[in-house]
Every structure is written in structure tokens, then in C-alpha cells.
Amino acid sequence: MRRSIVLGLLVLAGALSLKVTAYQAQQQAPRVVEVEKLKDNLFLLKGGGGNTAVFVRSDGVAIVDTKNPGWGQPILDKLKEISPKPVTLIINTHTHGDHVSGNVEFPATVDIVVHENTAANMKKMAAVTGLAPAAEAPTQTIFERNGGRGLSKRSFKDRMTLGSGADRIDLYYFGRGHTNGDAWVHFPALRVVHAGDIFSGKNLPLLDANNGGSGVEIGDTLAKAADGIKELDTIITGHSTQMTVADLRDYAQFNREFLATVRDAKKAGRSVDEIVSGWTMPAKYQGYAAPQPARLRSNVQVVYDEAR
Hints:
This protein is of the alpha/beta class. The protein has a single domain (30-257), classed as Metallo-beta-lactamase, Chain A (4-Layer Sandwich). It contains 9 helices and 12 strands. A hairpin with a 6-residue loop joins strand 8 (159-162) and strand 9 (169-172).
């Protein structure tokens, strides 16, 4: 009996050791930021979370989104290779941790601007609908652990303009979608907009009801953006490659059709499970990513709960 207990303890200790070693390796893995030049003064930083845009202006560098925890410094290091100018402005497209967590590693002097709903959401950092919670969720948000550093200093409701001429940035809000605070960051002189995760790529969106997202409104919100932002050729997505306005209109229609499918099925008395099991990517949307089962079920549930 004693020998069995000892062997069991040794096996358990070995398993724990492997887990610790794997975790340490993950923590120590180099954080590599990849750079893609879009224009002479506009760059895309990939890796570590959502796509980060870098806009070099006459008086400093403006960046859009700052990735996961621990990626702020790697962004700052990479920026030294792009421009000697200091970072003066951060714009966060929405509240999720893979887009805002790096904020805390930037100098406290940097201006941070978000939509007013995102400003409220960042103070709470609520769990994200459709994503499994962390095994050991911290009792404080990343901003609370850093004494409020990285939270927004300014916010806007419908529209805000920052700078002028070639340095100009226009911020728009067209309504609920991925969250209730999705900002569209437009560089009119370059005819480029950063859409964040309301257009993360050609796939099922993540409908984060806990942070105000809406499966009923997202299609209309996307269409309003396609119509409302002028001087636009290129769209920086939240996690994928660059898209066009035609792609955005197509994505708006895709989300409207998804809403109609779930709404009609609900009216017909079908359950969430029945809708999920019967839904497949429409053939007309060839090239869209195959739906992740958990994402599909979560989105159907969100729309089911909203739809009338």
C-alpha cells in the first residue's frame, strides 16, 4: 500500500512539474512582433492578439490597439525600428483583453481615446460571451493591478476628429455589434480604416453580449459603416488580412442572413440546439472560415435571446 501511495505521489509530482515547465516555457517564449508596411507612414503589427495599426504623424506616433498582456513593451521596441518619434496617442477599438492589455506598459503621458461605452467596459473587463473563462481568473482587472494606468483619458459618443490635414484621424461609432463600443478608426488621407473585431475577418463574429454586443444589430451596424465612411479603400480587420468596402458590405449581408435564419427558426419553434445542428456555412460565402462549434452555438444563443 505504501509503495502504491509513494508511486502515485511521484507520478503526480512529475505531472505537476511538466505543467509548470510548460507554463514557464510559454511565459519565456519570445514575443515576436511582425511588421507589415501598408503606406509610407502606416504600418500593421501582427502577433500577440489583435492587429495593431501604427500611424506616424508629424508630432508623434498614434497606435490602434495594444494586444495581449505583456505585449506593450515588444510593441514599443518594434516602434523604435519604425520611427524615432514618441508614442503620443493610443486608440482602442473595443474592450477585449487582446486589444487593450498592452496599454499598461506605455508611458503614462500617452493619450488614450475610446468610445464612451468601451471606457465603461474597460473599468469592468467583464467575461467575454462565447469564450471559456480562465482557469484561475484574477480578482482584479489588468488596469486595477496597475493602479488605473492604461484606462482611457478621453472618449467620444458618435464621432471625434483628432488632428488635421495629413495627420487627421476620424473616429466613428455606428452602433452595437461585436460589443456596444466598437470604434472605427479612419485615416482619411490614406483612405484606410481600422475596424477592430466588429470585422475581425470573414468568419462568424464573436457576439459578446456581456459587453453589449448584438447579433440583431451587427448587420445593420456594418452596413452603416460601409455607407458612412467616405474616402475609404482599405479596411484593417481585427485579426485577418486587409479587406475592401465590398468585403464589408458582403459581411454585413452575411450577418443579416444569419440573424434571419435564427429568428425564423425561433418563430417556427425550433430550439437552439436544433438550429445549431442544422446550420452550415451558405455556399455563397465560399472563402469564409469554417465555424467553430462553440462560437456557432454561442452566437445562435445570443441571437435567440435577442430576437423577437
